[in-house]
C-alpha cells in the first residue's frame, strides 16, 4: 500500500526474489516516494509513504488465527537496507482495532545483509501515525500482522530486502545488533 490509495503518486512493490549464489530467497520492498499532492483531492494534506504487512490469517474452527509470541523476548529481521528510515509495524488483537505498535528500523550496514533484533517491550503504540497514551504493553500473545513502512516523506527511490522475520530469545547470531540495548548492556 502507499499514498496512491488516497490519490498520491508514490509507487510501491513487494515481490519475492528467488535465491542466487550470492543472495538468499527474500522479499523485496521497493519503489519511489512522491510528496506531490493530488490536484483534484483538496482533503489530502499529506503524501509520501509506502508500507506492506502480511494479510490477516484466516479463521479456524477455534476462532481467529493469531500468532502467540509472548514466550519470546525479541523480534528479529534479516534485512538488506538502502539506509532510509523504515518502521517495523506490529498489529495485535487489541481494544482499538487500528492501533499499530511501531519501532524504527535502523540499518547499521546499508547495502549488506544484517540481522536486526528488537525488544518487544520497546515498540511504541500509535494510531494513524500518532503516539497514543497510555502506552500499554503490547499483547504479544495476539499478534495479527507484521509489516514495514516508509514514512520519511523524502522523495526518491527506496529498496529494502527482507530474508526473514522471526521471534526469538537469542540476542544474536554473530551478525546481529540490537536496537534496544546500550553499549554497556551489550558488554555485560
Question: Would you kindly provide a written description of the structure presented here, covering whatever features stand out?
Answer:
With 188 residues, this protein is mostly beta strands. It is built from 1 helix and 12 strands, in the order E-E-E-E-E-E-E-E-E-E-E-E-H. Strands 1-2-11-4-7-12 form a 6-stranded mixed β-sheet, with no helix packed on it. It has a 6-stranded antiparallel β-sheet with strand order 3-10-5-6-8-9, with no helix packed on it. Strand 1 and strand 2 form a beta hairpin. The protein starts with 10 loop residues before the first strand and ends with a helix. The C terminus is likely disordered.
Task: Describe this structure in a few short sentences.
The chain is mostly beta strands and 188 residues long. The chain has one helix at residues 183-187, and strands at 11-17, 26-33, 50-53, 74-80, 86-92, 99-105, 113-119, 124-127, 130-131, 143-150, 156-168, 176-178. It has a 6-stranded mixed beta sheet, with no helix packed on it. A 6-stranded antiparallel beta sheet has the order 3-10-5-6-8-9, with no helix packed on it.
